[in-house]
Design brief:
By secondary structure, the chain is mostly helical. The protein is built from eleven helices and two strands; from the N terminus they run ααββααααααααα. It has two domains: 24-87, no CATH class; 95-316, MetI-like fold (Orthogonal Bundle), CATH 1.10.3720.10. A two-stranded antiparallel ribbon has the order 1-2. Helix 4 (109-144) packs antiparallel against helix 5 (146-158) and helix 8 (207-215) crosses helix 9 (220-255).
Length: 317
Amino acid sequence: MTAGPIDTSSTSTATEPAVAAAPGQGVHSRRRRVGTLVGFGVLVLLLWEAVKWLGGVPWRFTDVLGTGLAIDYSPPFRFPFASDLTLPHWFNILGALAAPVQRNAQQSLGEFLVGAAFYTWREAAIGFALGALLGLVLATLFVHSRLAERAFVPYVIASQTIPIVALAPMIVYAFGPNVTSVVVIATYLTFFPVTIAMIRGLRAPDPRALELMRSYAAGRWATYRKVRLPASLPYLFTALKIAATASIVGAIIGEGPGGIPDGLGRAIINFNQQYISGPEKLWAAILVSSLLGISFFVLIRLAELGVLRGRPGAAER
């Protein structure tokens, strides 16, 4: 008896939740999250300046609003961590982005850091792609081979117990002080969350969908492509959002011992050495590094919304 063509519609629907979200619920949830994020940022800035107001160094404002009026203010307390050297005003940090990166330089600090951020992002993106691919391959192997899972998963987990700061110089020594070592470090931090999440995700399909594929005499590849992989996509994107920020961290850390002169890692090291004369530059580099990680996260989130469009609950993840 010859089996007919495989009906993939029943297998795909079997893996979806039964309850769909309300039509406007996703938009409302996204607006609430954005509002919460903006509110949290404003609160941090207010607390920042409140600490400076209570325990910072004396303030002096000259020519307030162009009126020629000068205002002096002396905080009632002195907090050691609230000095202008340790905790500069956030508006001075933003102002430093418009100032020249070096004395008599034509390029502003903001332009320099944006260029360094794109350079670091390219390194991180390569490591991110390689790490995601490696994690997917390992998870696929472990799901289809219990022996390989029992043998190698403990080593995959143990690999993440080594501090990356200690491991980075060893990787640089092995691959040389170049971009390759930075990509390897970013790959190292990326593959682990993808591997662990996809082991769970590839086992997430409804057992009835798997049984239906077996009843059609479908092979492992057909079952993997039509049932396991589609059902694992929410798990995959959850891991990719974690891996995106981890790859940025890995690239920045690797640029130090890797001797990369054009990325954010080297900029942070240089500005740290110049901290006494210009603390705002280091804080600005940290700010741009944070924004780079957030931007990469948002990029993966947008890809998730596009790929999982139409799936119930996709907008709430």
